[in-house]
Structures are given as C-alpha cells and as structure tokens.
Amino acid sequence: MQDRPTAQELIDAVAHFLGTELAPSLHDPRQKFRTLVAANVLSIVARELKLGDELAQAEWHRLNALMGDDAPGEDLRAEIDVMTRALCARIRAGQADEGEFHDAVFAHVEQTVMEKLQVANPKFLERVMKETANRRE
Amino acid sequence: MNPAPDALRLALEEKLRALTQSEVRVENLTMLAGGASQETWALDLRIAAQQPNGDYKLVLRRQLGGKIYRDALDLWREFHVMQVAYASHVAVPYPQAFLPDLLGRPAALVHYHAGETIGRRIVREPAFEHARKKLPAQMGAMLARIHQIDFEKHALLDELPHPPAHQTPAQWILTQLENNLDAILEESHEPHPALELGMRWLRRHEPAPPEKLALIHGDYRIGNVIVNADGLSHVLDWEFAHIGDPYEDLAWSQVRDWRFGNDALQFGGIAQPDEFFDAYARALNAPVDRARVHYWQVMGNARWAVGMLNQAQRHLRGEEPNLEFASLGRRCAEVEWEVLHLVR
Lengths: 137, 344
Prior knowledge:
heterodimer, A: 137 residues, mainly alpha, extended, B: Phosphorylase Kinase, domain 1, Aminoglycoside 3'-phosphotransferase, Chain: A, domain 2, 2 domains, five-stranded antiparallel beta sheet, two-stranded antiparallel sheet, 10 helices, globular
C-alpha cells in the first residue's frame, strides 16, 4: 500500500503548480498557453482515475444489452473494445440505419460520448446540456 | 532541427541576391512558429537595387515534412494556389517568391500584413467590435470570389486533389474518411461508433451533386484570416485547397469547434451565419441552400474529428511529440457530440 498523497492528490498538486505558479511566471505567451494545456491534461487524468472504472462498467452493460448476452469476463475493457468494433462494423454495414436498433445504438453511443466528455471536458458537457435544455423549453 | 537564425539569414541572402540580381540585406529574422512539419519566420528585406522602394516586410515559410491530412498541399502547390488567388483579386498576401531549396528545404516568401489571426481574440476583444460586425458579410463576399476562380483556366485541376471521375465530392471525401478511420482503428485499436453513425448518415443523405465544382479553400474560417479594425484583411492557410463542392467551404466556418467558446454564434463565434450566406448569395446571384449547408456541416465536423485523431496519432507515433496534439485525441469527443447532435 502506498502512502498519502494518493495518485490523484499528486496529480492535483502538479496541476495546481502548473496552473497557478508556473504559468503566471512565464513571459512567452506560447509557453504560458502550453503550461495551461498541461494543467488541463492532468485534470483529465485525475478525472479518469476517479471515474474510469465506473464508466467502463456502465459502458460494458449497455454494449452487452446491445450486442451480447454474457456475464462480464476478466478484462472489461478488452471486451468493450471487441463489442465496440463489432458495433462499428454493423453500423458501417447499414444494420443500424433505422428502427429500434438504430435508436438503441444511438442512445448508447450518445451516452458513451457524454461519458468521454465527463472525463475530457466536463465544462463542455455542461454547456451543451444547458443548450439542449433551453431548446426544449 | 531549427536552424540557427544566422545560417538561415545568410542562406536567404544568397538566394535572394541571385533572384534579384542585387545586393540584399535580411534583418530582424524572427521565428513566429515552429514545429516538426513547418516553420514560420518574420523578416525585413532590403533590396539595394530597388532603393528607395526596395524595403519589404515578409513572412518566410519552411516546409519540413508531415501533414495532418494526406491531401494537404506541398508548399510549392500552396504557393501556386496563392498566386492564382492573388491574380483573381482575392485578398491573399502577395506570394513574393518560392525557393525550392533553402538550407535543404522548400521555402516560400509572402508579404507580411499586420493584424490579428487568433480566433479567441477576434471573437472576444472589444477592439474588434466593429470588425466583428463587418466580418460575416466580408467573408461571404470574399468566398464567392474564391469560388469564381476559373481553376481549369489556371490548370489547377490536375495539380490539386479533386474527386475522381466516378465519385461526387461528397463520396470522395466520405471514402477518405472511412479509410482514415480504418487506419486509426488498425494503428490505435480505437473504434469510433459516433463517427461511424455520422458517416452512415452522410452516405444516406447525400444531396444531388453540385452543378459546378469550385476551387475550395479547405479551411476557410475565423482563425485563418487576418483581421484588423476594419474587418477582413487577408485570407491565409491555403494548404488544404482542393477542387470540390462550394458548400464545403460555406459550411466549414459553422463547425462548432471554430466558435472559440461562443458556441451560440454559429459563424465563427461572431454572428449567426445569415449575413455570411446573404453576401455570398448576392455575389453569385444564387440563393444558399440551407439543407445543403447542414449536410456539409455534418461532413465538416466529421472531417475535423478525424483530423484531431490524426494529430493525436502523430504525437503517439513520435512524429511530432506535442502536448496539444495529444490532448486533441481526448477533445475529439466534443466534435463527436456535435456530429451526433446534428444528425439525430
């Protein structure tokens, strides 16, 4: 077992250093920008560490409902990969063009993209969710 | 490897001496941007034989290798497109000279123009408030001028990427995207069902092929134009020029990622696109078909998503280790969301 700070806490510490100490101290605007990109990338890693497993579980269950009918094996992510490739092949072949399967595939894929955004850019997700809500009103 | 400024300066002076048959001096050679694929420098050039008029402010581009898309133009073809555009009264920086071998690499010299190119600043800064009001119509009118270029007269059809005889522009691009996605799948083992859904929609909803093909700029948007207080100054970044459906250019500026955070304003984060379309339609005396724009907007987003994945690949392969490229691999999800949202 490792001591504190946890992996996540270490990442947060580095991100904080880059964003609040290093970036403001730089004169070159390009390097300043890239330092902020670096801090942002670390936040992505932190969110992935935190949410990755639970999102993989959810994705596996949705894919399984669409494509397979098994209990989860040992390597969840490998199975997600195999099922997603099969899904892509079916989409490309035109099998998800219409009807119930189309709706089910679309819903799964949309949810998966939203989960990717939860990790990669939650602010973007918030923004587009608000837009969608506003349009419904 | 970035050359020492002195070696570059001396090499440039030697080439220009031969080109102008005059004594020359290159001063203030400053790197503006550098990467594994190309470098951009600013410089002052003094041509002795042309004094008192022989002072030039120039931008030097050196091609080093590696492209985002396989069909990006070599520097000399991009230079030629700029020459044709300039001769056709499109506001492009004057293409001054092409040097096939400057320290072992092709290089192009174009005129320097002051102004702003950074999208975030153009979209947000108070100094550009007046410019923002004028930009949509100005860009619409300028795009019409680009699309009116007689590319066949200038022998560009064979020189530039163009749809093969048996494919419409849309089919041509879609096939490239599918091949590109397959390559990414093979190399990165990464399937993208959101993009598959988008491409399937594009296959099934193709409008009638265009009556006439046009010279397409290929990256026409805020971020690739020089803007000053009066609005549009010059159009830059012609490396994705090709022959195709004019709606490709009309829709590209609507791609969400080019709104620099002002997502509600569809045209480059500056305005709704009506003035842009109206100015274009007026110049060509033909209405803009919004359904057709929508189709090419989906295509544009799908294309940009694949472009982002390609850039992430270049980082992952070690071709151009670059944190921004790496992060594009994750940001692709934003464009996937937009594709799904547009086709639902």
